[in-house]
Amino acid sequence: MTALTYYDNVTGRQNLLWLRLLWVGAMGASSTGRTGRRLRGRNQIVAAGRDRA
User: Fold this and answer.
1) pLDDT tens, 3-53?
2) Residue 12 three-state SS
3) Helix, strand or coil for residue 49?
4) Dist CA 21 CA 46 (whole Å)
5) What's the confidence (pLDDT) of residue 10?
6) Cα(43)–Cα(36) distance, rounded to whole angstroms?
7) Is residue 1 over pLDDT 60?
8) How far apart are CA 43 and CA 22, in angstroms?
9) Phi, psi (deg, nearest 5) at residue 2
10) Measured between alpha carbons, how far is 4 from 52 in angstroms, rounded to an integer?
11) Domain span including residue 26
């Protein structure tokens, strides 16, 4: 294995890792946005129940 192929492998792996991090970050952001909205909705329901009680 030459230094050049090793460098290509390393940079390729880093690019894949970077893409995976970006993908996971995007997925995490959208999923947390969804769950965050769901939690906020549940809190409003709980708050409404507390006001009634």
Assistant:
1) 777 777 777 777 788 888 888 888 777 766 665 566 677 777 677 777 765
2) helix
3) helix
4) 36
5) 77
6) 10
7) no
8) 31
9) -85, 165
10) 71
11) 5-51
Q: Which two tokens stand for residue 45?
A: 């329901």
The Cα–Cα gap between 37 and 42 comes to 9
Number of helices and strands in the chain (H, E): 1, 0
Strand, helix or coil at 53? Answer: coil
Taking the alpha carbons of 38, 41, 47, 48 in that order, is the dihedral positive or negative? negative
pLDDT the model gives residue 5: 74
| Distance, CA of 21 to CA of 32 (rounded, Å) | 16
Total number of domains in the chain: 1
